[in-house]
Description:
This protein has helices at about 1-20, 25-40, 50-90, 95-100, 105-125, 135-145, 145-160, 160-165, 185-190, 210-220, 250-255, 275-290, 310-315, 330-350, 350-360, 375-380, 390-405, 415-420, 420-430, 460-475, and strands spanning about 175, 195-200, 225-230, 235-240, 295-300, 320-325, 410-415. By secondary structure, the protein is mostly helical. It has 2 domains: about 1-105; about 145-475, Rossmann fold, CATH 3.40.50.
Amino acid sequence: MGTLVASVLAILFFLIAFHGLGVIGVARGALSQTRGAVAVMRDKDLAEDDKEAAVQRAALGLLAATASIVARSVGCLLISALPIYALAAIGVTTAEAVFAFLSRWDVILISSVVIAGVMYWASRSGGSVGGYSAMDRTVHRLAFSRPFVQLAAADLEDTVFRRDLEDVPERPPLFVTSLPRAGTTVMLTALHGVPGVATHLYRDMPFVMAPLLWSRLSGAFAKPGGVRERAHGDGIEVGYDSPEAFEEVMWRAFWPDKYQPDHIDLWRPADARDDATAFFRRHFRKIVALRCRGEGRYVSKNNGNIARLDLLPVMFPGAHIVVPLRDPIEHAASLLRQHENFAEQHARDPFVKRYMRDIGHLEFGELHTPIAFDGLAELTDGLEPKDPDYWLAYWIAGNREILARAGGLHLVPQGALGEHPGPVMEALCRDVRLDLQGRDVTSHFRTVATRTDAGRFDPGLVAIARDLDAALQAASPYRP
């Protein structure tokens, strides 16, 4: 099994390197030069001296392209050998066994067909979604084909970058969580501007469990950090250097049984696993090493962590949990809009649906899988996600979980952030042990106008939600 895993990873790394080092692009450039030279030779109106000069330029260009292709191809082979020797170093297999396996004629035939098929498919697939080109999609599919691919990449990274982590201290992480659309992304973006904060970025995709390794491999073809509006259509602009939530991939890898077809179970303290805790802590240090050169603190934004409010303090003693709060009527209406938005996107482009499923964003659209909050089944009895009351009921169930644990959380009302962003963020950063160092992070917050008629919802649910919201506001030290 170890030999097979190493062989698959070697082929995967070869594909990534082949794309990242631009072998196809250089080859296409050489072919274009050749065609240009042939066209010049056939031009009857061009002087012989000009033809000779053009051919000489083409010859020099072809020579340089050939050298470049050879060098890049060697680089692909060296990169593909990394997982082989890394897994051999930790005793999973031996390099001799892997090379012997890859040298078999049937394996050569099958791997050649697979590589050729992937390259052909990538060249024929047009368009992009969310900045993902056809080749990006190919790498994504490979990275998320099986959980062991991500875990094996993480194990490889542990070996290759062991020394990089030796001097990275372990500090309690900071978690930002709430129901989706509560303002967690804006909070993460603001905290990302605080000195010493380390977060996941969009460019960590698709090998989110091996950020150091992927950063090195993808460095040769890193994309520019321009921004554009994200898929939510909510005016928030993101780019490859924007912070984002990807750690749900790891939760699902260690607790797959929590993810049922029709719901996601809650995590309890008894669900703690030593191997998972060690993996997460090591991963947090990797992000700190990558983003802050070892001197920083990991900050997570993950809406799924609202299902783990009892487990996080057990796994990460001393961690702080920040929970943004939003008006229940506005929040429920926003949840419904996003459900409709992503239902349309999932129907239009299957890759959008796959992307969201792979990274664990199961909140909306065809992927909607509710967290099984206590009492949710009774509140949503007879309701469907297309109904406004469903989302208000979901808000009630989710925020009851929050209120029951309010003493261990930092509850931050959206109204307070909109009206007094400076004092609120100063107090919050002081409470969670972050040093602003004079940095202004208030530009991300604004006062949100009321836009939803409460008459759209069942009056009984509205009354319950209003009372619950009042209790949450009273439990927050950051209220206006």
